[in-house]
Amino acid sequence: GKERDSFIRWRIGKQMPLIPEDARIDYAVTPGRGARKIIVAMARQVVVWEYEALFERAGLKPVLVTAPSLALVNLVRRDGRGSGVLLNLEDETLALLALADPGWSLYRQKDVGAPGASAADERGENIVREAENTIRFLEDRDKTRISRLWLRCAAAAEMPEVMGRLRE
Length: 168
Known about the structure:
Blueprint: H1 2-15, E1 23-29, E2 38-44, H2 45-57, H3 68-72, E3 83-89, E4 93-100, E5 103-111, H4 120-142, E6 146-153, H5 159-167
Parallel strand pairs: 3-6
Antiparallel strand pairs: 1-2, 3-4, 4-5
Helix pairs in contact: 4-5
């Protein structure tokens, strides 16, 4: 536990030399033995308190906070065959989560622009470009074929257009 925490802070420090004293850090580790992948989330304590206060004013007490895309992994049908990419499209961001045995192999979050009629073409192009870039990267790096693609759109009305663009 402590050794892993120290290692994670050391790795974060290589990319971000000045970690705030009040930084809250959490992480998830891929299952299995051997080489493992770690995904890390970090937030200032003040930010965490702001969110907790917001929920408490609404009469809620948050117990577990997680990245929505990581929680969606439990909803996709996986039968152990092949690798896939889960696309989670929110208001302005697209999260891409690559799934391979024994767990996830890559997590990326990209800005794809705000939804709206005037920016729909550019947004659609950004979504497809990010999906293609991620798939190519995974196939080149891991030498594995991506055989499945799952899509979740926060705005259900956007789903048919995005699916059509991805099929093209």
